[in-house]
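TASK: fixed-backbone design
INPUT:
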């Protein structure tokens, strides 16, 4: 058993499973986007999932956030504003946290 003098920080991975097209070599959980992506419903689900897991991470600070996929750059700025507002309300995030979003240059 570990004896920590302080709780270790956390890194958060957020998966966005939609792509412009599914590449034949890709083994990740990703799907070709249709005419619309259900980003509002997906952000709602991510927030609900996090709320359920809060007791498992209570008191630990987020040091980095990585958003991958798929092609996370397909989501709108409004969707990410909503997501990050919820993250900040629910979790302590370091002021100097590293935040990375995978992007396909053709999607923004």
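OUTPUT:
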């Amino acid at each position: 058993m570990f004896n920590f003098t302080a709780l270790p920080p956390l890194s958060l991975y957020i998966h966005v499973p939609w792509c412009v097209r599914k590449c034949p070599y890709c083994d990740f959980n990703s799907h070709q986007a249709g005419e619309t992506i259900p980003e509002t419903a997906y952000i709602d689900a991510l927030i609900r999932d996090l709320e359920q897991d809060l007791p498992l991470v209570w008191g630990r600070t987020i040091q980095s956030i990585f958003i991958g996929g798929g092609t996370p750059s397909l989501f709108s700025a409004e969707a990410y504003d909503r997501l990050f507002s919820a993250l900040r309300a629910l979790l302590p995030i370091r002021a100097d946290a590293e935040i990375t979003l995978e992007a396909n240059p053709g999607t923004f």
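COMMENT: The helical segments are 39-57, 77-90.
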